[in-house]
Structure prediction request, 160 residues.
Amino acid sequence: MKTGTKINGSPNIVSFNKIFKYLVERKINRYFLFIILFQKNENGEWKINVCKIINILNYSKYLSYDYGPQQIMLKEDKFVKDLKNNNLNVDTNISIKDVLKNLYALASDNNKLEKFINNRKEKLRDIEKKFSTFDSNILKLNQENLKLLDYNSKLKKTNI
Prediction:
């Protein structure tokens, strides 16, 4: 179950490897999401605006793939917008073979894979650079920029 109050990003739906394997092995033929959208009323109370159970495999237009964790993700902003406007693009007659093709297409996008690899290499270069500047002879911590509480002056000491 995923929860949130803002629409942004792409929450993970399921492991690509797991759902692909289960579909190929015919262990499943659907993957349901329980969607609840809340809306704040004029009194500031949260009320259920939409409550729906959907087979996400019928909504491939709203799926993406994250190469890092190898997760199928939901394009949440587009999905919620279309859901609220009663304009969801759904394919209720899609075959399992076509679902598998759609999932494979998401995971085999060479442009996105190349972008991911380049990003990962850049992050590794940053890590190597930070590591190369590490001096193990310095024993004193420098926490000035962390904005931590000064427990001696801000909090009352208690015996726990």
In short: The first strand starts at residue 12 and ends at 15.
